[in-house]
Design brief:
CATH topology: Rossmann fold
Number of helices: 13
Number of strands: 8
Largest sheet: 8 strands, mixed
Distance between the termini: 37 Å
CATH architecture: 3-Layer(aba) Sandwich
Structural class: alpha/beta
CATH class: Alpha Beta
Radius of gyration: 18 Å
Shape: globular
Order of helices and strands: HEEEHEHEHEHHHHHHEHEHH
Length: 335
């Protein structure tokens, strides 16, 4: 089946706009799920809205669905593009290609296929890793960059092996996810335990049960889905080496660094200042690791203000406001 407006294959079933649970009112009239073949990879992407293009890059262990609460309002001013990354959701799950240079190139190819030459990017969690690679490797394509809630491997200082219990709770999955096989063997059939704990332990405001169930069911849908979820971590040796080289090519475009005041706080901005010249900091009060789902109104307000110059055709940045009171350091790393 194809979309009449584009001729591109539409997607349906679980994981698509047609099959996702509890979407905001009117979502399905604005947004469409499509498959786009970009060389070796078939990508699932949700698109809708009018205006300059805005690419939304989800984090781990999520899909495009993580952006659902802010997408309708963003679509009033932007052509919103929310893909499933390589290895996740309904996109292809090849065995390799999970370093951030390749993942960024996937999204450049996607935007090429959609006819978007220059665009804004917002990335959360591992989507911040990919967003940074996009901006550093393809600076002529990225007008401005908003990122949220993770350390940046190869840029952020590496935490000690014997960290505090609080920091260990935030970071132990990095090492676990990088393992070659035993992680999949331990998690298979227990996806609700492992991924459910990740969502519960990192949110200051509990995510809805239907959303967590949607993510867990997606990850439990087959061995390729579980493998794909770990693959970006298994490629960290390559990504770290790439990021160490990227640091020599500092970002010149405006960057908005968002932290949850109950999670990373202004540590996101401190990280991005190691790699970018024009960094605006925002810590969202009462928010943990998932700004777009825990505090969608505050996240939308910040993104709208930051993106206004881009929307209006201006090259200048815009400050979304000072960090939330009492949130200068945040609670600790997540990602």
């Amino acid at each position: 089946m194809s979309s009449p407006a584009t001729g591109l294959p539409t997607a349906d079933g679980p994981g698509s706009v047609a099959g996702a649970p509890n979407l905001p009112d009117g979502f399905t009239t604005t947004f469409t799920s499509r498959y786009i073949d970009t060389g070796e990879l078939r990508q699932h992407v949700v698109t809708g809205g009018e205006g300059p293009p805005l690419l939304l890059v989800h984090g781990w262990p999520q899909t495009w669905y993580a952006w659902r609460l802010v997408m309708p309002a963003l679509a009033r001013d932007f052509s919103v593009v929310a893909p499933d990354q390589r290895g996740t959701g309904l996109s292809g799950k090849p065995p390799g290609g999970y370093d951030t240079a390749t993942l960024a190139a996937d999204l450049v190819a996607l935007m090429d296929a959609l006819g978007h030459q220059r665009f804004a990017v917002a990335g959360h969690d591992t989507g911040m890793w990919i967003g940074y690679a996009l901006a550093a490797d393809h600076p002529d394509r990225v007008a401005c960059l908003a990122v949220a809630e993770t350390p940046l491997p190869g840029v952020s200082p590496s935490p000690p092996l014997f960290a505090s219990a609080h920091l260990n709770d935030r970071l132990w999955h990095f090492a676990f996810n990088r393992l070659a096989e035993v992680n999949e063997q331990l998690v298979a059939g227990r996806e609700d335990v492992y991924f459910g704990w990740q969502f519960a332990s990192k949110a200051a405001k509990e995510l809805p049960g239907y959303a967590v169930r949607h993510y867990v069911d997606t990850l439990a849908s087959g061995t390729e889905a579980l493998h794909g979820s770990f693959a970006i971590y298994r490629a960290l040796d390559i990504t770290i080496a790439q990021n160490q080289q990227r640091r020599d090519r500092r970002l010149r475009m405006p960057v908005l660094a968002i932290g949850g005041a109950e999670s990373l706080g202004d540590q996101v901005a401190a990280t991005m200042k190691l790699a970018a010249d024009d960094v605006q900091a925002l810590a969202i009060r009462g928010c943990g690791h998932h700004p777009a789902e825990e505090t969608p109104e505050a996240t939308l307000t910040a993104l709208t203000a930051f993106l206004a110059p881009y929307r209006d055709g201006s090259a200048a940045g815009h400050n979304p406001g000072p960090p939330a009171a009492g949130s200068s350091s945040g609670r600790g790393m997540a990602g």
